[in-house]
């Protein structure tokens, strides 16, 4: 069972005392309570029978109250597991009618958050969109700013994943407005929320490769000092900063950002840490550093991680200028390395770097050398050798006089 599912199941018990608080004038309804727990006992072995039994809770309660709210939560969860999405949506809409008066504000907020987190594991993008939009519609009258912000952020992340940037920009405008002062300036008292918005917007600009806007927002996000951000948020910001710097050829800055992103992801337990470690290795090679990135205390435990091992071996071949081994690793681990669009974007540059180093070493003992010989040694076409040689001459790595076409 996942932690998310466990949280969703256990929130009933955590709020059990709500029913009988001293501030409440209501007496425990034993029939409702028994019906609820009898229904709950059925859900693992006979979920359909549990649904019918939870329906009886709704019929017994008369006036809307907490037992009905809890029953609906369980019905949503069961229908999700049964992939009965239309019925799940109907029950969710029914549950949202309880949030204005039947249950406390804190309890309803916590419950809705847990439901949205739970269903977010679904790959049904249209379903998720309907859930978020339905929630936002219900919140118009509820005046729950915190839940409104969280739900809009979830919807924004969905639009980002679907590459619906027009819709995402509309969400971002609304989120920005909620974190501004009357003068239209960013309200620094809402620093944590501002960083969440920046992280979402930064991801959009990264995906669009809009480095100009990305750079301005990235710098702005690093200057917010009033927030205590979740490490996951800072991981996102730093990762996008690293990508921006790498695309601009600022390899050392990229290396710093990827390392900070890796540490933040590691602290938050995010699986993005391994991806960011790959990017750190990429930046390390592009900056032509002789330092092994896995020598750091934070990265060392991941050196032999199956997902990282290919990149570890790639570093070794790269630092040894072993082009044969480098290309062999790329071929053997093609999906592990090349399936990542960002890494794929920079592999050609790595190959050019290592070929340049091998070329310089190859021609050093000679005063004249035949281009076909170089072509054979580097395992590339003659035209590619010529292009590489021209660049080496322009960079003054090799003298023009050493070349002779056969």
From TrEMBL:
It comes from Anabas testudineus (Climbing perch). One of its GO terms (cellular component) is cytoplasm. Belongs to the CSN2 family. It is found in: Cytoplasm; Nucleus. The gene is COPS2. Signal peptide: none annotated. It holds the Pfam family PCI. Its main location: cytoplasm. This is COP9 signalosome complex subunit 2. Keywords: Cytoplasm, Nucleus, Signalosome. Residues 254-406 form the PCI domain. The keyword Cytoplasm applies. PROSITE patterns: PCI. InterPro entries: 26S_Proteasome/COP9_Components, PCI_dom, TPR-like_helical_dom_sf, WH_DNA-bd_sf.
């Amino acid at each position: 069972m996942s932690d998310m599912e466990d949280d969703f199941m256990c929130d009933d018990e955590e709020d059990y005392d709500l029913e009988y608080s001293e501030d409440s004038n209501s007496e425990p309804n034993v029939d409702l309570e028994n019906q609820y727990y009898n229904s709950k006992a059925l859900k693992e072995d006979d979920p359909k029978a549990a649904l019918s039994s939870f329906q009886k809770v709704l019929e017994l309660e008369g006036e809307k109250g907490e037992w009905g709210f809890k029953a609906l939560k369980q019905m949503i969860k069961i229908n999700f597991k049964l992939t009965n999405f239309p019925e799940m949506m109907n029950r969710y809409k029914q549950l949202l009618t309880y949030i204005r008066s039947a249950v406390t504000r804190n309890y309803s907020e916590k419950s809705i958050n847990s439901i949205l987190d739970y269903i977010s594991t679904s790959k049904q993008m249209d379903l998720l969109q309907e859930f978020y939009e339905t929630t936002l519609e219900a919140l118009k009258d509820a005046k729950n700013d915190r839940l409104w912000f969280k739900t809009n952020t979830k919807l924004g992340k969905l639009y980002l994943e679907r590459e619906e940037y027009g819709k995402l920009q509309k969400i971002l405008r609304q989120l920005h407005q909620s974190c501004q002062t009357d003068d239209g300036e960013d309200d620094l008292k809402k620093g944590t929320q501002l960083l969440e918005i920046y992280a979402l917007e930064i991801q959009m600009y990264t995906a669009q490769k809009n480095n100009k806007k990305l750079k301005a927002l990235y710098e702005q996000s690093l200057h917010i000092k009033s927030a205590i951000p979740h490490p996951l948020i800072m991981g996102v910001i730093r990762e996008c900063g690293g990508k921006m710097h790498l695309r601009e050829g600022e390899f050392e800055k990229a290396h710093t950002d990827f390392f900070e992103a890796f540490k933040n992801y590691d602290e938050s337990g995010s699986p993005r840490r391994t991806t960011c470690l790959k990017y750190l290795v990429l930046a390390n090679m592009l900056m032509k550093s002789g330092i092994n990135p896995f020598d750091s205390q934070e990265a060392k435990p991941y050196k032999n991680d199956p997902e990282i091992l290919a990149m570890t071996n790639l570093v070794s071949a790269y630092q040894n200028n072993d082009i044969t081994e480098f290309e062999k690793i790329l071929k053997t681990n093609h999906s592990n390395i090349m399936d990542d669009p960002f890494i794929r974007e920079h592999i050609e540059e790595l190959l050019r770097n290592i070929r340049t180093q091998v070329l310089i070493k190859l021609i050093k003992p000679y005063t004249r050398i035949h281009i076909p010989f170089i072509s054979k040694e580097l395992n590339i076409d003659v035209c590619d050798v010529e292009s590489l040689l021209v660049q080496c001459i322009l960079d003054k790595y090799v003298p023009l006089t050493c070349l002779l076409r056969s």
